[in-house]
Amino acid sequence: MFTRLARVGEKARTDKEVRFTNLLSLLKVPLLSEAYQRLRKDAATGVDQVTWREYGEDLDARLADLQERIHRGSYRALPVRRVHIPKGDGRTRPLGIPAVEDKIVQQAVKMILEPIYEPMFLGLSYGFRPGRNQHDALDALAVALGRKVSWVLDADIRSFFDTIEHEWMRKFIEHRIGDTRLVRLLLKWLHAGVMEDGKLEVVEEGTPQGGVISPLLANIYLHYALDLAVAAWRKKHARGEVYIVRYADDFVICFQYEREAREMRTALAGRLALFGLELHPEKTRVIRFGRYAIEDCKRDGRRKPETFDFLGFTHIEGRTRAGKPTLLRRTSRKKRTTKLAALRTEIRKRRHRPVHEQQRWLSSVLRGHYQYYGVPHNYRALASFFYAVESQWHRSLQRRSQRGRWTIEERERFRRRRPLPMPSIRHPWPSQRFALR
Fold first, then answer.
1. In what order do the strands lie in the sheet with 80-86?
2. Average pLDDT over the chain, rounded to an integer
3. DSSP assignment string, 61-88
4. Which of 78, 249, 261, 342 could form a disulfide with 160 if both were Cys (CB 3.0 to 4.6 A apart)?
């Protein structure tokens, strides 16, 4: 089974035009079993309320039955359970949680499709791809901004996951997948519907965020709707330098010339409209940014250049102590505020648990924060986050009794006895040899 998967990947790498016509035959018990093991064991349950461990109690029989239903065509995807998670601007983001059996099949199909599509995807795409992560995208952007860049198109697609058109998705998939049975299987998940508060909602467009297969489908859609178009526009129309970095539906395009930045924005709006997508009018803008931005602002009578957010960081054009232009990346205020508010609530819930347990949990939270946000020039923001968390924890502990507040000496003794990890920079500055596509 896995030898056949390897051969599929090799064929996809060597022949970029081939269409695969017999992929459903790979969906058998060995692949389904491997897909089951790759799922998160503590993930939330779907509408059937079956956990990963409960499904595995009679795994061999369940997977054999699942294989038979898939190949007989009687497999039916259950509706996803919709939950809402808070966003940094006070709104919520809907997530769709599939049933564990649907997750297994989606994971297996993902393992089949990834080797086919990975050689086809362009280098400018970083989101939800093997061997690539947010910091790869951030490093690519940092290197690009250090070159001949004076303008930035900071773009966002409005409600991308909710507005994907199913018919276009089918056409895009059929460019490489000639197995009609597998295409029908993929469309079953798009048409499964959403269950919220006990009510079934039929969906005509979109793919639910939270599904195992959703990120891959989103990348396929954006590859045809966006990536190929911007790469072709750059090759045909650009006279100056142009760099593109996309992570899921968030992308930044760097330009040497303002005229090309504004032409690209207009061209993109028309291109995306063909596929039912729209640039967010408030989150999409062309701004002056780059190593000459500070001088340009002084000439225009403005105090400082505009900033933009990407992947949780606010990007700022600054100066080194020697006066040379440099990129500053700070933790986004919106992300920091949202995280601290969530921690304040959780600290309050854990107030009466053992102190060593609280210390272990907070240490894990801080280490995770440093691991993501620990980039050069961001130490001050990390320190601010550390002291805010430590202060919230100390205040919470003092409210466990009716005794007065700690004195300075008591606070220092507790800090030495129960220390939290101090901020640290975890990611080096990206090399100028970083490969830009």
1. 92-97, 80-86, 194-196, 199-201
2. 91
3. HHHHHHHHHHHHT---PPPEEEEEEE-T
4. 249
